[in-house]
């Protein structure tokens, strides 16, 4: 491979001086290892090729960091990224650029980079479970054939770091602070890479959906950068209000999907396809359950028992469990209760996964069964990949989960921000992808968010929702990976207008 190293010597020397000064304060005169210092303005470029949909795609991969500056132009942090650019495309003016984020908050973009859209894929089995030896293989479903992609790690995730412990975390760790500095970073990246003419897309997963929903408007209002598409994978609530009886009821369709998967529904429902079961449960939830829970203690015993029987039928739990919990079964109890008779718990982010608790009793699982499995597969894979294939050498720890607390969650209006961005920009389209077995960002809550974002139905021609038979990271299941990436490919093409098309409402 050809390797090009671009390094800002002045910035690195400045940081080294700061770190040495900090050492002297602690009476430690040992030199700081250069390999433990973040190179906040550097990149390593390597060259590769991959076959996607039977087509050879040559590409460059840039792994490096770009700075975040304060108001006086001084660097306060370095944001690590990996950038994949197809090399046989000369004119980039109509070549889409996808900016990708994961969530947490506090996790890097590793999950979608080596699990979903990137040119290399981690080794897992067809359902997404870890296999050994850990490592990487080509991704024949990558979207690199139709778009260049940059994966961004927010501050203190992956290799991204503040330049010093003295930089206040409030600059980065909060809904709106996160959006603001990342919008500035995207502007710098687009400018440096010469991509202002390119159609631009944001994709976020989990908390990354909060991030990109806010970024859509921030980029328009503060960076004057207009997007063609936003993709939400397993979206959060996006700051859209749903407390009380509504919040308590919306989980039932997810419970039904999970119970169907584990064969816990009555025979007449279990014999149906999942897509035939869920509309019935969704209709009951909105039209009967929400009004009933709203009545609270005014329900008579007969009504209460009848509702408990219906909820039992759709969830796989006993009617008695619902009666004991005043018709409201929290997620934690559901994950513990559904397979209690078999001695298992089920996963929060993907209820196909099973866990083993110390004791069968209790009202919540001891741990997240799916997350431990994912970390087992992803952590060695990304460390091997960045060092050995992309040749990014450092002794910094790659933070799969970084310290970003306390996180300021106040004034989260990201759902409304996204609605406003779509309304202001006739080019902007929205795609939402959900896994039916995701209990953290469940699919029916995602549907509800879309309904509330567009209460008048004026934007529905540019908004699409898709469901998959897996969990939070639906792409870890081989069949869903192929389908979901193909749908991304179609979305990117459809949201990229023909040359000369005006952005206006007719």
Number of helices: 15
The largest pleated sheet is described as: 11 strands, mixed
Unreliable residue runs? 1-27
Separation, N- and C-terminal Cα atoms = 51 Å
Shape: globular
How much of the residues is beta strand, in percent? 15-25%
Tally of separate domains: 2
Mean pLDDT: 93
CATH fold descriptor of the largest domain = Rossmann fold
Give the SSE order as H and E letters: EHEEEEHEEEEHEHEHHHHHHHEEHHEHEH
Residues in helices, as a percent range: 25-40%
Counting DSSP E segments of at least 2 residues, the number of strands comes to 15
Briefly, what CATH class of the largest domain? Alpha Beta
Question: What is the topological layout?
Answer:
Blueprint lengths: L3 E4 L1 H17 L16 E11 L2 E15 L5 E12 L10 E5 L8 H8 L2 E3 L13 E3 L9 E6 L7 E2 L12 H19 L6 E6 L1 H16 L6 E5 L11 H5 L2 H10 L5 H4 L3 H22 L5 H15 L3 H6 L6 H7 L7 E2 L7 E2 L13 H21 L24 H11 L4 E7 L7 H11 L9 E6 L9 H17 L12
Parallel strand pairs: 5-8, 5-10, 10-11, 11-14, 14-15
Antiparallel strand pairs: 1-2, 2-3, 3-4, 4-8, 4-9, 6-7, 12-13
Helix pairs in contact: 3-4, 4-13, 6-8
Keywords: Carboxypeptidase, Glycoprotein, Hydrolase, Protease, Signal
GO biological process, one term: proteolysis
Pfam family, one: Peptidase_S10
